[in-house]
Amino acid sequence: MSERLALKTGAQKPATSKPPAPKLSDDRGKGRALGCAFCRRPITTTAAAIQVSGSHEYTFVNPDNDVFRIGCFADASGLKKYGPSTLEYTWFPGYAWQVELCGGCRNQLGWFYRSKDHGFHGLILDNLVEIEENE
Ligand SMILES: [Zn+2]
Predict the structure, then answer these.
(1) How many domains does the chain have?
(2) Residues surrounding ion ligand 1 at CB below 5 Å
(3) How far apart are the first and last CA of the chain?
(4) Which of 20-29, 65-74, 92-101 has the lowest mean pLDDT?
(5) CA atoms of 13 and 126, how far apart (whole Å)
(6) Quick check: is 21 in a domain?
(7) In-domain check, residue 17
(8) pTM for this structure?
(9) In angstroms, what is the span from residue 106 Cα to ligand 1's centroid?
(10) Would you list the DSSP string of 52-81?
């Protein structure tokens, strides 16, 4: 196994230069497809973007001083949950988080947050790119 996963609130940084993050504020409805920035596997759509506690987008710093810009999404297919769900250092009070990897290339794309009665995906916006639906 050669994975280098940080399993707390950390994540490995992409080794490549970062593509511009997709804009999420327009073109709702069907939305545009968003895929993994590493392998372009379809992950979610702009239509699945939601607000959590009044905002879609958050910037967080983890205990390793890595900065993450994440967006909240109601649905995201193409992800694989990894490791335990925990409340430790959670960014959203009351929500336990669990690492989510790309189901294709297994780079970390974000976290799944769940409370007693709600769940959403907090995805690292710099690790998502717009893709064509039929790509
Ligand atoms: Zn991928």
Answers:
(1) 1
(2) 36, 38-39, 41, 102, 104-105
(3) 29
(4) 20-29
(5) 10
(6) no
(7) no
(8) 0.76
(9) 6
(10) BTTBSEEEEE-TT--EEEEEEES---SEEE
